[in-house]
Amino acid sequence: MLEQVLLVSLFTFIIHLSETLTYSLRLAGVRLGKLAVALSLSGIILLISRTANMLQGPLTGNILDFAKHNAGYNIMDSFQMIIGAATLGTFTALLLFPSAVLLSSRIISHLEVAGSIPQMILSSVSLQKIKHARVHLRFPKLSMLSRLRIGGIPKRLVVLNVVVTAMATILLTLLIDPQIGLITDKVLRGEKEVAALSKVFGLLMLSRLLGTILAQVLLLPAAYWIHWMVSVL
Fold first, then answer.
1. What are the pLDDT digits (tens) for 188-208?
2. How far is it, in rounded angstroms, from Cα 121 to Cα 188?
3. pLDDT band at 13, cuts 50/70/90?
4. 218 class by beta-carbon count within 10 Å (0-12 exposed, 13-18 middle, 19+ buried)
5. Is the confidence at residue 170, as pLDDT, over 50?
6. Residues 121, 11, 93, 46: what is their CA dihedral angle, to the nearest 10 degrees?
7. What 8-state DSSP symbol labels residue 153?
8. 91/5 Cα distance (integer angstroms)
9. To the nearest whole number, what is the mean pLDDT of the chain?
10. Which residue from 133, 130, 127 is spatially nearest to 96, judged by alpha carbons?
């Protein structure tokens, strides 16, 4: 059963890594003035996330079935490991974010020239260019944190993102994404600086990380709440 828990944790890591890194594509698209191209590439990354999510579901069900028929099995440890993988995936995306923005800019530019993703892969992917990608590697600096003050950014956006990450993806779609869209439009219209959008994405990644940590705290109380709700219904 440990193998299945580790596999679910791996898929969870991929889901949170890929979903968080889509922010880098959006930011690169806004900087280049090619948001539509960036959003099309974001769809590919989200496809990876959704595929991992689809594979994760049956495996999680197997873990629950095993715990149901084996009273001595500690399912809390398994779920804490899975949530820990979500935290690790988000933290890894935070570390990769500066590099991902630079590489995303290059990918968007290459895609515009090539005209299609298969053509871009054929014309742009080579051993030499993969080695050259190291030039674009950047790591977060402590000075970046000082620029992530909430001034000028809706505080409710950050707070909601912490809670939403811990609770449900559907709320993310309803509450967070429209707010990001509004800020992105203001940047494209010149009403806000690109730095403001960069700050938004930085704060959202940090709050997403805090949300996964909060999920560890809420796991047991939420389980009891769901049990109570089921008994009432």
1. 778 777 777 777 778 778 877
2. 29
3. very high
4. middle
5. no
6. 50
7. S
8. 20
9. 77
10. 133
Give the list of residues 6+ apart from residue 117 with CB closer than 8 angstroms, or none: 44, 111
Alpha carbon distance 25, 211 (integer Å): 22
CA atoms within 13 A on the CB side of 166: 21
Determine the 3-state secondary structure of 154 from DSSP. Answer: coil
Sorted by sequence, the CB contacts under 8 Å of residue 113 that are 6+ apart come out as 120
- Does 148 have pLDDT greater than 80? no
**Predicted TM-score (pTM) of this structure:** 0.70
Q: Where are the domains of the chain?
A: 2-232
Do 227 and 219 contact (CB within 8 A), yes or no?
no
Residue type at position 1: M
The pLDDT of residue 141 is above 80? no
Structure tokens at 136: 């674009």
The two tokens of residue 188 are: 């494209």
How many C-alpha atoms does 218 have within 13 Å on its Cβ side? 17
CB 212 within 8 A of CB 165: yes
Q: What is the pLDDT of residues 71-97, one digit of tens each?
A: 888 888 888 898 889 899 989 988 888
Q: Give tens-digit pLDDT for 22-46.
A: 888 888 888 888 887 887 788 788 8
* CA angle 164–100–204, rounded 5-degree value: 20
Q: What is the DSSP letter of 176?
A: I
What is each CA distance from 128 to 108, 109, 131, 136, 208, in whole angstroms? 19, 18, 5, 14, 36
